[in-house]
Structures are given as structure tokens and as C-alpha cells.
Amino acid sequence: MSSNNIGAATAHLKPVISAEQIQKRVREMGRQISADYRGKTAHALAVLENGFMFMADLVRALDVPLMCEFIKPLYRDRIQGTTTSKEIFFSPEIEVRGHHVLLVEGLVHSGVTTDFLMNGLRSRGAASVRLATLLDRQAARRVALQPDYFGFLVDDKFLVGYGLGNPLLERNLPYLAALQP
């Protein structure tokens, strides 16, 4: 795609967090996480799709022994009588027994899915489970969940770029931007 086409495609975006700000904060988080995991092997587990770009940069900023894996949440309706609820599954199922898991998210919003996943990892025998997220939207939280490491607090704007998409477009941008009406 030529630079003219990229400019036209991103004209509806307002940059919110620059690539430089992201990289600086990821390096800071990497130093903090490395200090906390000193003497341990971290089992970094990224949630797709929003977490893939953050995971790639974050693991390069870590200086501890490390395993990397990816999972994807799958949702389906569960019907019981007249009530419909959502079930959450994660694929593939990762072996975590005895591992120090660092769950990596691009964005924590309501926290419901993340909390469910963290509890599931603990119940399957993880030695520890910590949460690293690039973006924390605390105002939208529906469960008591506090990331162990976060990059930036964000408001209700719908953000794209740096792994986040609309729904699958604009994930390749090196910065974060809000969609302009």
C-alpha cells in the first residue's frame, strides 16, 4: 500500500498514544516484570487478538527465562430453559501446572473475561498468575480486578492500532488512535 493510501485510510483516526510513548512504557514494564520474576521462568500467555503486538514487544523487554504461548477466547451461547448465558472457552488449553504465568492482554475492559481466565489458570495449578495489560479501562470494570502491570489508563474512546482493531483493521498501526466520527 502506498503512503498516500495509508494516509487516506487513517485520515479518520486521531492519534492518542504515540509509538514512542508505547515503546518507552513497554521497556519500563519489562524492567519491572523482570525484577519481579528474577530467579523464575515466566510463562507468558497472550490473549489474541488484542495482545499479540504488545506481547511481541514486551517479551523482548524481559531478561528472565521465558516461555511464550497464545490463546484465544471463544464465546458461545448456553441455553438452560428460558435463560441464555454466555460461556467462555479458551483455545488451545495450555498446561500451566507449576508455572509462573504472566497473562498478557492488549486491553482490559470489563475484566469479566480476564478474571474468568485468571481464576481458571489458578484452578489448574499455576504457581502464580499475574496480569500485564497495555491499556486499562478501569471505568468500565464490572469485576474487582487490578492488573499487576499496566501501560496506560484509558477512557471510553474506541482505540485502534498496536494490535487493537476495528474489528480486524488497523491493528498494524505502531501507535494507538481514536476513531473520528
Give the name of the CATH architecture.
Answer: 3-Layer(aba) Sandwich
Global mean pLDDT: 89
For the record, what CATH class applies?
Alpha Beta
Percentage of residues assigned to helices? 25-40%
How many domain regions?
1
Shape: globular
Number of helix segments? Answer: 4
CATH topology, anyone? Rossmann fold
Q: Which structural class best describes the helix and strand composition?
A: alpha/beta
Beta content comes to 35-45%
| Parts with pLDDT < 50 across at least 5 consecutive residues | 1-8
How are the strands of the biggest sheet laid out side by side? 4-3-2-5-6-7
What brief labels describe this structure?
single chain; alpha/beta; 9 strands; 25% helix; globular; disordered N terminus
Describe the 3D structure.
The protein is α/β, with parallel strands linked by helices and 181 residues long. The chain has one domain: Rossmann fold (3-Layer(aba) Sandwich).
